[in-house]
Amino acid sequence: MVKIADIELGEFPLLLAPMEDVSDPPFRALCKKHGADVMYTEFISSEGLIRDAVKSVEKLDIYEYERPVGIQVFGNEISSMIEATKIIDQTNPDIIDINYGCPVKKVACKGSGAGILQDIPKMIRLTKAIVDATDKPVTVKTRLGWDDNTKYIVEVAEALQDIGIKAISIHGRTRKQMYKGEADWTLIGEVKNNPRMHIPVFGNGDIDSGEKAVAAKNKYGVDGIMIGRASIGYPWIFEEIKHYMEHGVNPEPPTLEQRVDVARKHVQMSVDWKGPRLGIVETRRHYGNYFRHIPHFKEFRSRLVTGETLEEIELTLDEILETFSEPV
Predict the structure, then answer these.
(1) Residue 321: how many CB atoms within 10 A of its CB?
(2) CATH number of 256-324
(3) What residues are annotated to the active site?
(4) Residue 99's closest CA among 90, 91, 111?
(5) 284: buried, middle or exposed (CB in 10 Å: 19+, 13-18, 0-12)?
(6) Distance of alpha carbon 28 from alpha carbon 37, whole angstroms
(7) Within the chain, which residue ranges are assigned CATH 1.10.1200?
(8) Residues of the chain with pLDDT under 70
(9) pTM as predicted
(10) 19-39: string of b/e by CB count within 10 Å (b at 16+)?
(11) Residue ranges matching CATH 3.20.20.70 in the chain
C-alpha cells in the first residue's frame, strides 16, 4: 500500500498532474470518475493568493468527492509562500504540493517553478519553511534539473525527504527541455532505488498507455505514475492503464456516444463553474483528444473550438453523433 503520510493511495496510484487551465474542478471530477487516485489543483501563485487575487482564490475550490486532493502552490519568496500555505491550510486539502517544475518563462525566469532549480540551497530552505508552516503532508513536483549540466535530482530528492516532504513527483525532463524530446526515466529510477529514500517516488513524463505504465513500473520501480498531457481530453487514460495492469490487454476504447457524453458533461460543468465565456474557451483544448482518430473530423473540430455559446457546442455534439454513429 502506497501512502503519503497516513493517506492510503492503493497499490500503484495514478495521479492527475497539476496543469494550468486544465486541472480545474470540472476536469478533476471527470478524471476521478475514470480512475484517477489522487487529484492536484492547478498551480496557485503565492503572491496572488496573499493579495486575494480572484483567479488564485478560485483555484482553492476543492470538493469532498475528489479526495485525496492536493493544492499546489508556487512562488520564490519564503515569507509569501509561508503566508500562502497558511491560507491554503484553511481550505483543508489532504496535501500541499510545491511546484518546482513549471518551465514556462514567466514563472521560471522569476525564480519560481523550475526556476528554483538554479538555486538548490534556496529550494531546500523554502521547502523546510513550508513543511514547518503546516500540519498537512507536503509533497514536491519537480524536474531532473535546470539543464543537462545540473541534473542533481538524486541528491535533491534525498535532501527534500530529509527536511520532511512526504512524497516527490519527478518529471523526466530538465527545464531547458521544456516538453521536447523524450522524458528520461533513468534518473527517476535512481531516485527511487536510492537506498536512503523511503518516501513515495512518482514518475511523470510521456506515459500515455498501459504498456508504458507497466514498463515504467517494472523497469524503474516507481511507486506510482503522474499523468499529465495524456489525460487532456481523455480522462479514460486512468482506467485504461488500470485495466492493462490487471489484465495485460487494453480495454475497448470509449464509444462515440461515451465521448460525446463526457464532452457534453465537461463543457456544461465548466460553464457552471467558470461562467459561459471562460467555461467554453477553456474546454476547447480538450476536443481534439475527445474525438481523436475519427476520420474527416476537421470541420466539426473547427466548430467546437470556435463555438461561442453552450447552445452552439450542444448542437455540434448532436451533429457529431448523427454523422459518425454506426448505422444499425
Answers:
(1) 14
(2) 1.10.1200
(3) 102
(4) 111
(5) middle
(6) 11
(7) 256-324
(8) 326-328
(9) 0.92
(10) beebbbbbbbbbbbbbbbbbb
(11) 3-247
3-4 and 7-8 strand pairing: antiparallel
**Interatomic CA distance for residues 148 and 155, integer angstroms:** 15
Helix orientation angle between 256-274 and 276-283, rounded to the nearest 10 degrees: 140
> Residues 57-109: pLDDT tens digits?
888 889 999 999 999 999 999 999 999 999 999 999 999 999 998 878 878 77
**Assigned CATH for 3-247:** 3.20.20.70
Question: Which letter, b or e, does each residue of 157-181 get, where b requires 16 or more Cβ atoms within 10 Å of its Cβ?
Answer: bebbbeeebbbbbbbbbbbbbeeee
What are 116's three cell numbers?
528554483
C-alpha to C-alpha distances, 249 to 28, 145, 208, 252, 289, nearest whole angstrom: 26, 35, 15, 10, 21
User: Do the Cβ atoms of 101 and 114 come closer than 8 Å?
Assistant: yes
